[in-house]
Each structure stands twice: as C-alpha cells, then as structure tokens.
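Worked Example 4.2. Consider the chain below.
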Amino acid sequence: MTEQPGSVRFGVLGCADIAWRRTLPAMRTVPAVEIRAVASRELRKAERFTAQFGGVAVRGYAELLRRDDVDAVYIPLPAALHAEWVERALLAGKHVLAEKPLTMRSRETGRLIALAGRRGKVLLENMMFVHHPQHRRIDELVSAGTIGELRSFVSAFTIPPRPPADARYRPGVGGGALADIGVYPVRAALRFAGPRLRVVGAALRVDRARRVVVGGGMLLSDPDGVTAQLAFGMEHSYDSRYELRGAAGRLTLPRAFTPPPDHHPVVRVDGRDGHTEIVLAPADQFARIIAFFASAVRSGEAAVARDVATQTGDSLRQAELVDDIRDKAEYAYVS
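Applying the procedure from the previous section yields the following structure tokens:
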C-alpha cells in the first residue's frame, strides 16, 4: 500500500492471531493507514509480521512506544494486558485502537477513557461488528415499524473449543470466554435494547482445572420489561446471531458478529403475513472500523468526535454490565 499524505502511522503491540488473520490485512486496504512498526517480545515473531504486512520489526512493546514515527497503536494483546499497555500508549502520546475487551473491569475502562480525553487522544475498543452496515439496516426496519414495538432481544455467540495453549484458557492473561466472547451479545443488546438494561440473572460455566469461564448465559431487562436473553461460550458448535422480537413480528440476523468480508448478510423478517428474506451487500467490518478510527485521528470534526464519544460510552456501559454479570452469576464448576 502506498502511504497517503496525512496517513495515520500505526504501530502494532503484539503478534496475535486476530492481527494476522483479520486486522492487519484490513489495515492494508485502508488508504489513510500505514503500518509503520510491529513489536513482539520475540523479534522473530515481529519479523514474520513485517515480512507479510510491512513496517519495521521491534523487540519489546515499550521500544515501539518510544518511536516518533508512530501516531497510533493497535493492541491485540491478551485481555488482561490491555489496561497496562493502553495506559502506557496514551501516556506516550499515541492514539489507541485496542482489542476487546478494552480492560477487564469497568473502573479501569472508565479511567482510561478519561485519560484519553485529558491527553486529547482517540481511544477506541475494536468492537468491529458494530461498524457493519447490516445492523443499520436492522435499525431502519425497526424504525419503519416492521416488527412493532420491541419486546425482547435474543442473541448467541458460541465457538468450538480452542487449542489447549490458547490465552483464553489462562485466567491471569486471557480472562476466559465472558471477556472475549460474551461481550459481543452484551454489546448487541445494548445497541438494540438500550443502555438502561440491568442484569436480572446469569449462570456461568467454569472449567475447574483451568479456572476460567468457558460459557454461560444471562438475562437482562430494562425498566419497561424489555428483556435480552444472551448466550456465549467456547465449548459449543459455532453460532453467531441475534433476533429482535416485537409486538408484530421478528427480525433474525445470522452471522451477526463475524461475517467474512465477502459474506452477503441475509435478514429474515417474520410477520403476520409470513416471512421474507432481505439480502444485503457484503462489507469488511475490520476495514470499516479502521477507517473510522483513522478518520477520528485525522479529523477535527465535531460529528466524528461525537461518534467516538458514543462508542466509548457504550464500551463503558458494556464493561459495567460484564462486571455485574460476574458479581451476580451462579457459577457451575465443570470438568
């Protein structure tokens, strides 16, 4: 990719699989972005990335933060390391795009959002699915009265077991399935059912040997009785969907959270007169959030700043709900 005038120069802290498979390939398609450096504790890992995506290989995350040719950093480190390196990046004068969850606790999320504000830096959680236009089409259908008044939201995001060495199985590093996978349906519920949702109840399955959450479910409700029933886990068959149920019908979206860039989303509309399917254009949600982040870094427009503030506010509310889920859940310890 040819560097564009005013490009956002990215450094990458860590050589995670998500960076290799999705984020860095998407970065290379965004004209406003240049990959300037990749850091790892092991230089050979960083060299593998730079051979594929460009930039300079750097040994150590702190060394990358000292570079004056890096405007922003992307942080795909394990979840429990986010708070430390987001803070260090902000204090080093960098804008930050961090993988979800932004931190492991809402107080840390709120503290870092406030720090970014004081430093005049963009801080964004890489909750990429909210940038896919398929969800905006759902908004339009709901606003048009297609399903009547919303009564409930139902969602699931589950994946098969990961390799034994996966960071998500390490409680002090990856944080388990709630932090990494459960945040998707929680964020979707907030988007469609609103920020007044509260935790009614939850049940979490804990791998006894590894001491991490591997799955679970929760019931949320707002003051008007609109409910959100959510399920997640990494000991299941793959599922990624949500459904909005209204007084006059329902909308269902499969592949809601991880559609490939060439996937044509299909919205199913069920009503009194039967059902129809609406086929939408494909989109690369990774490229879209990267382009949004770059625009926020480069632009001084008030509308862009408001969009960032809305998304960071959603990230904070999401973190608060996850805290409540942990605190209020019944725990089942399984072998």
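DSSP finds nine helices and 15 strands in the chain. Residues 8-128 form a domain with the Rossmann fold fold (CATH 3.40.50.720). Compare this with Example 4.1 before moving on.
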